[in-house]
Amino acid sequence: MADDDYDDAKRLLAAARIEAPDSDLASLARVLGVARRRVERMYEVETGDEVPAAVFRADQGAGA
Amino acid sequence: MTGWTIETAGAALRAGETSSEQLTSDALAAADRLDEQLGTYLLRFDEQALAAARGADSELAAGTDRGPLHGIPFGIKDIIATDEGPTTAQSLVQDPAWGEQGDGPLMTRLRDAGVVVTGKTTTMEYAIGRPDFDKPFPIPRNPWNPERWTGGSSSGTANGVASGQFLGGLGTDTGGSVRLPAAYCGISGHKQTFGLVPKSGCVPLGMSYDHIGPMARSVWDCAAMLTVMAGADPSDRTTVDRPAVDYVARLDSAPEALRIGVVSNQSIADSASEAMLAVFDDAVAGLATDGGEAVPFEVPHYDRLAEGTFLALQAEAFAWHRKQLQERWLDYGRPTRLTIVQGALISAGDLVQVERVRQIARTATLAAMDAAGVDVLVSPTTGYAATPFSGADPKAVSMAAIHTPAWNATGFPALSVPMGFDEDGLPCGLQIIGRPFADDLVLSVGHRYQQLTDWHLRVPPLHATTG
After folding, report:
1. What ranges in B179-218 are assigned the alpha helix state H?
2. What is the CATH number of the domain that holds B58?
């Protein structure tokens, strides 16, 4: 676990206004790298102009 | 409850060979004997269940038959609200007032179909994380070997059906939580097409990945349940208005010359035991008999679909839990809080990219299925059979849910049926996947397999009928 990962985990949780003990931050720091690699692989897929799977629909719930 | 399924119990009810009260009394007696050891229930509703059973008997005697589920004992995963009692989500954090809404539309449908609710079943906290020995809740154990896990998160429903404590029940599935415990416990479980069944009245995990699915011993039983469960409801915007289907009547609808795509992505071989792959090969060979054909099938972006499911469901779960995580961090179990909070580790833009990949992969998979001319896809449900609570092979633990989440991301229907046993005598699951809203075909293929085999009728060592 890199010190940077620990600091990043602490910063990300602080941004969400969550206080976690050091042991939890250390665990999150260990998975942060895994999450980042997963995210990077998402950008390896050619997605072009595709829209996200969840798309806002203005007509939803508007009745007939 | 010797060897009974919903189908055979219903036939016995109508033949006057048993009563709903007897079935329910037997179910509760089995729970008296097995629940403490197996950790099936969070809460039992003995009196309400017996009263409902007597009511079901009276109706049948008066000529009112509500269909295949009439008078059948059911367990309900405790993230789904019911009239009888509170919903805990197996968490110290969950507000008891949330469950006061009582039955949602799905429970109302099941109730109208005559089910007898015997109690609320165990899960992992908020249907995510791992078995947590530090919290004051039962640990669900596998009736094939209580030193092994049931799989999660619909753990109590799975081990309750497998052990004969009830005949059917509800689970929820966001990344595999119906299919995984179904496979580990040797029962059948169906994650239907996204949007087919309303989810209002269920504590959400990943809102765009969540499904509520039927769990029972046989595919016939799951089909009978889905027939009742399916249908749009205005309380759930994700439901889709489709014509009603009698899934039991469609159980023989699979084509004789079935063309089966065998998921052949490298990650299947990389993340399954030799024993699992051998059992799977036998199952595919069995399904492909009588004019069928099995062909290799590469699922486009398969690994990205699985990874994306976890990234996105954590983000969606984080959105729902953020306030409580701020205020009650230590009241969450450690596995749960550390899993959900990972949703805060990725950016909004990254989540959008996950959802773009999801769209691309879904479209590409459908196109590939059409190009290959396959009716369904098959894979092992899990790479390994049920893992032990301690001393588990880390690979078996980490790979437990590797083959199921792609189908939450695409929303395709996916069924798990028992396909045999590994070298330790633990059940293995066969996953059958279909195109959106081809739930009838998927169930039909599973039913055909269960006409050829009796794996789904095998009884574990810890069962209502043994000991």
Report:
1. 179-185
2. 3.90.1300.10
Q: Are B210 and B457 in contact (CB under 8 A)?
A: no
pLDDT 10s digits, A30-51: 999 999 999 999 999 999 999 9
The predicted structure's pLDDT at residue B219: 98
Asked if residue A48 is part of any domain, the answer here is no
Contact, B357 vs B304, CB < 8 A?
yes
Number of domains in chain B: 1
Residue B128 lies in a domain: yes
Give the pTM. Answer: 0.97
Residue range of the domain that includes B272: 6-303+347-457
Q: Does B355 touch chain A (CB under 8 A)?
A: yes
Provide ipTM, 2 decimals: 0.93
In angstroms, the separation between the Cα of residue A3 and the nearest Cα of chain B is 16
Q: Is residue A15 part of a domain?
A: yes
Residue A28 lies in a domain: yes
C-beta atoms of A35 and B345 within 8 A: yes
pLDDT score of A64: 42
Strand B259-263 and strand B212-216: the pairing is unpaired
Q: Does the annotation mark B153 as catalytic?
A: yes
Q: Are B28 and B46 in contact (CB under 8 A)?
A: yes
Q: Judge whether A34 lies within some domain.
A: yes
How far is B148 from chain A, CA to nearest CA, in Å? Answer: 25
**CB-based contact (8 Å) between A37 and chain B?**
no
Cis preceding linkage at B188, omega within 30: no
Q: Does residue B2 carry a pLDDT above 90?
A: no
Q: Give the pLDDT confidence score for residue B396 in this predicted structure.
A: 80
- B327 located within any domain: no
Residues B222 and B248: their CA atoms lie apart, in Å, by 9
Tell me if B1 is assigned to some domain: no
Does A46 contact B at CB distance below 8 Å?
A: yes
Partner A contacted by B395 (CB < 8 A): no
Give the domain range for residue A26. 3-42
Report the alpha-carbon distance of residue B42 to residue B26 in Å, rounded. 19
Residue closest to B197 by CA, chosen among B219, B165, B227, B159: B227
A20 CB contacts (<8 Å, ≥6 apart)?
A13, A28, B329, B337, B341
In chain A, the number of structural domains is 1
- Dump pLDDT digits (tens) for B52-66: 999 999 999 999 999
pLDDT, tens digit (0-9, with 9 covering 90-100), for B414-455:
999 999 999 999 999 999 999 999 999 999 999 999 999 999
Q: How far is CA A30 from CA A8, A27, B348, in A?
A: 11, 5, 21
Residue B366, in any domain of the structure: yes
